[in-house]
Amino acid sequence: MKAVILVGGQGTRLRPLTLGTPKPMVPLANMPFVSYVLEHLKKNGIEEIVFSMGYLPDGIKSYFGDGSAFGVKVTYVVEDRPLGTAGAVKNVAEHISDHDFMVLNGDILTDLDLRALIDFHQKKEAMGTIALTPVQDPTAYGLVRTGPAGEVLGFLEKPSWDQIDTNLINAGIYVLKNEVLDMIPAGIEYSFERGVFPRLVGKGLFGFGSECYWMDIGTPEKYLQAHYDILEKNVTTSVSACLDKDFVCVQGKIELHNGAKLVPPVMIGEGTRIEAGARIGRMAVIGPGCVISAGSVVEESVIQEGSTLEENVVVRRSIIARGAQIGRDTVVTAGAIVGEEAKVGGENILANNIRVYPRTVIQEGTIKF
Ligand code: GDD
Ligand code: MG
User: Measured between alpha carbons, how far is residue 255 from residues 175, 222, 307 in Å?
Assistant: First the structure.
């Protein structure tokens, strides 16, 4: 079976992380996010993958190449304008064979049993089967009402509160019959969620619910939560094997100076230097090639590749993107995001979900909230 991964979105809710890096390439526990989707597919025996891309496609192509380094075969199709989720699949039709195929949103971290999904679809002889997952707030998703045999009775994208009568939503993973391609108009923007699925209700569309880990990493809060879940092994990924029995994962050689502390669960990328008196964790991921200077503290946060914290910096529940520099005695806290290669001078306080855009320079002692 072939799988189409949809990665054409702009990832606006993850800005500034997605301004220079497409969402699929944003590192999650030091690995581009979409490589978790690839490893999940491969683990379930799906090795032929089509990337449907739009926004910033080059980084994805150069990282995965023909896929052989990842044990899969990858084909790329780039849209010259966004075609919507279904239009994007129609656009790659020539790469899909006559059989059933799978479609996956590219921003989902899950350990869903894809083989069980395919089995269910084939037993029902369904036109389409949508994987379902329960969430607390369905308003941000596609609500799916099902009957006793799993038949879909209604599909409502981004429902309002008064429309909610189930907590089951579209998990962003489908198995579809090739005939579904005939329902999608060519060359125009068209979506599964507002077009294809509502039209398929009562015509062989099924929902498949199962117990599994599931997370859409589309917002900064969820991006952080996905890190915590990987560190706690709430979801099984290739990182799980690196986390030892004490929940510490050190990737290759690092410099850990005397008196520096790693508080698990914690993950440190190769070549990173952690100086005396610095404390990393709990719930921290430090990318490769970072410098965490003496006396700095990183908790419940992500520091991406090649960033530097000078002395006595505190980072809590925040994200520092690739190659940023944070000056001494600065505090980055409460959902702050510092964009790629930004330079934040010393003695600032960045809090309250502040977004520092890539390459911004903030002088010493200018922000205090
Ligand atoms: N190629 C291509 N072209 N891909 C696209 C396009 C497009 O025009 N538009 C969106 N995508 C990709 C995005 O990159 C993402 O991987 C996926 O399609 C879904 O888009 P999102 O923008 O993340 O949608 P959402 O999270 O608001 O809602 C979708 O996912 C939910 C589950 O997380 C819907 O499918 C909901 O029904 C679902 O519940
Ligand atoms: Mg999404």
Answer: 47, 30, 15
pLDDT per residue as tens digits for the range 163-214: 999 999 999 999 999 999 999 999 899 999 999 999 999 999 999 999 999 9
**Looking at the predicted structure, is the pLDDT value of residue 268 above 80?**
yes
Question: HSE of 284 in the Cβ direction (CA atoms, 13 Å)?
Answer: 24
Indicate the pTM of the whole model.
0.94
Flag whether 225 is in a domain.
no
Q: Whose CA is nearest to atom 39 of ligand 1?
A: 141
* Residue 253 shares a structural domain with residue 188: no
**Mean pLDDT score, 156-164:** 96
Q: Are residues 212 and 339 in the same domain?
A: no
Residue 16 has pLDDT above 80, yes or no: yes
- Kindly give the distance from the C-alpha atom of residue 44 to the centroid of ligand 2, in angstroms, as a whole number: 22
For the beta carbon of residue 111, count every other beta carbon within 10 angstroms: 16
Same domain, 179 and 34: yes
The pair of structure tokens assigned to 163 is 């429309």
Within 6 A (CB) of ligand 1 lie 6-9, 52-54, 79, 82-85, 88, 105-108, 141-142, 157, 169-170, 172, 193, 216, 218
Q: What average pLDDT does the segment 56-60 reach?
A: 85
What's 69's domain CATH number?
3.90.550.10
Ligand 1 midpoint to CA 51 (Å): 13
Q: Containing domain of residue 356, as a range?
A: 245-362
H or E element that contains 114: helix 114-124
